[in-house]
């Protein structure tokens, strides 16, 4: 097994400590230039950490001979599986204080091997952390505490095949360890696509999307991966099972919906039949500028409450629009995109633009020419979107405390919620650092009854205390969300970082049911201990 | 409390033994005329049953004084709460052999009273059957067995208010006991609608829809009530809880999805925040005739796999089309309807008609005039649809074994599934009765990855043995569905009648979790014993 995982189909090396590909990281000069944009940052970037400097001990346990071929104790592999890719994880690596490094990393190749590993772990008090692309930003793939004898990271990426395609029903059976590009490459010859594009698309897996209820490409209608699930296969310590492939059913509570979002705490999702789509043939996009943010929110609400169903309907506030190059005059920008495999979409775009203009926006549809260059603001936003996590790591090296959090709430609460986040999170950041923070907001997903605001926070931290600074900021954010009854997470998941907020949000009868399910399916309490349930 | 429940807003009397309103039942002459259409039916209709003839004993238990004002022991009320409205229930009443008649019927008016009733029942070994409109066709609201000291029917229809409307977020907090017309009447002044119209609309409640994952009006996109739930309030024997009002969330497995479809076995749904819609302003409908059924299925698949999203997309086979008056020449008929509150829908209808014609259908869009009369086949189908359950009861009085069942499967299985149902259910009916059965099929809901076929079976039964005949037919149907991996129910629910099929369909890890949840939430095992879980 390679020491550092490479993506199939590429020869590029994944960073063990930072986002994405190592060769895509900003260099020292770029980091310094970014740092200069904020007051109080470091004079020089923190050095890129080295595995050799990490406190990696000998494994606390070794696998039995029958499983040894699936398991590695290689230090760099273990280091790459110690944490996810939140700012909190990046800075801990940069500061040489990573989370607990797993004793073992296993890469099973089929369900039986997953079951064998769970059996062995259950019998030996070994915690098992299911691991897909490792892109968690909520502490979802690290071990905390010391209740287990050892920790095994269960890396599913050797199970990455599209096993069957049913073109008639436009669906495919896909192994959970397939990264986004890996599964799309296998679907392309069939003219089909899953069309689920979270920001982490390149570095996250189908299984990770399912276990965390990931939000994808769509801004409206089917936004979460949940709706594209036809059937799930789950291996639990108490046995394995597969739900039937069904377009819909009313037979009892949905079995799949219990495992969607279970974050590896109830079982390991090993494969799924997923609903696919034809590739869109018709596309149209445009951007709309608004002098103020709140009227733009009203425009977005009007579009969300129509049945126009834009594929993209992202509202960037002035800071976010400037950062991504979508505007430079202090405007908020609404990025609209329509797609269809059936019929031209220019009429839908035109109706949406009309709604936006009637709320004070200014923007025109580009000429209806399929070869015309896309709207410049739309293109700028798209490139910046994919580059953002790399820039975040560069800023982290300059001593900037920088990360994102997201939520969702009904429309009646959105304006006050966004204002309160700016005020209260800003105050918390100022108190923790002495600097005024940059706080940007965008609406990423919209619904007839509400929206998902997404916030970016950046502020120079107290050198060496960055984790504590971020934890203070995040605690203030969670507190605002809780008081406004906005969800602790729209699509990043709960993991360990969101547990306090999640425990407040979850209704007590469901908590009782979930704990009972955990006891039944994971009696030795080895599966991803600490996420969702104690 | 009135002995026979009347719908608020009407003075019409509900039938205690048959579908809907007593005054809408076909009279003896109409029954005889219907009976004459099938060979082997009775010479005269079975008489309408009388409560006085029922074996109604004294209640096995009486409520404590503190709850007595919520409870009745009136015989007709108890009789009206003994069973649902399946054919199996109707014929048992007609033959004077009803299911177990509950000892008590309670009508709580708030959550505390529901909790008090559950507390008392738990302490006294009394089974509690949550009861909304009582329209279950799967044995969902009757008690079977003798493990409990007494049976309490918990009628929620006194909790029927729309408590709050949030027009900004287009949502409302609605009590679970509101019948369809009752809740729509309260939403109308706000210009909003839940727009969920199951066939039972007049005689079923929001709580019943939620507890059974009812299928509604829409043929595509959001077909089940599940997708319109923003938040649920549930009272369980282990405590009550309310999920947060959210347009979407990725915080753990969906709490609401565990209680949706739980059929009263995990708790009593007492209210919900529901997502509403504006009333549609634009409508267009048309029908398309097909000489053969299977090419019509392909046309429907093409429309379902487009993004046209028809509100109605029902395919009636020749028998179903003739029965409903939509065609009389042996054609299958596709009924298409489009609706929007945002924009005209003629283009979408035209594109759908084009797709249908390219698969061999013949049909034209009506002139684009909003005052034009709706397509005649569409109107005929709609009237017949609502009248059908009354006719079923009339046929039952003539000794006809007649009921429906429904399922869903992926497109690759649909043609063989429908053929197998016709063949094998037909053979079972012939074997059980000596007569060739009428078996009609329609597709009621369609998805990109599959469809929901709905079957009607009618055949003269063996007088006095009708229940056994129907059970034989239903067993054959369940067997075909199971072998074709088609769901035991798309929207009628599991209840007690579908338990064997459900037990085969449900994946074992979910079964373990569900049993554990039941133990945690209903430790005395009083809630709707026998549905979903033993």
Automatic annotation (TrEMBL), chains A, B:
Active site: 454 (proton donor/acceptor)
Organism phylogeny: Bacteria, Bacillati, Actinomycetota, Actinomycetes, Kitasatosporales
Molecular-function annotations in GO: alkylglycerone-phosphate synthase activity; FAD binding; oxidoreductase activity
InterPro entries: Alkyl-DHAP_Synthase (IPR025650), FAD-bd_oxidored_4_C (IPR004113), FAD-bd_PCMH (IPR016166), FAD-bd_PCMH-like_sf (IPR036318), FAD-bd_PCMH_sub1 (IPR016167), FAD-bd_PCMH_sub2 (IPR016169), FAD-linked_Oxase-like_C (IPR016164), Oxid_FAD_bind_N (IPR006094)
Signal peptide (residue range): none
Sorted UniProt keywords: FAD, Flavoprotein, Oxidoreductase
Protein name: FAD-binding oxidoreductase
GO biological process: lipid biosynthetic process
The keyword Oxidoreductase belongs to this UniProt entry's keyword annotation: yes
Pfam families per UniProt: FAD-oxidase_C, FAD_binding_4
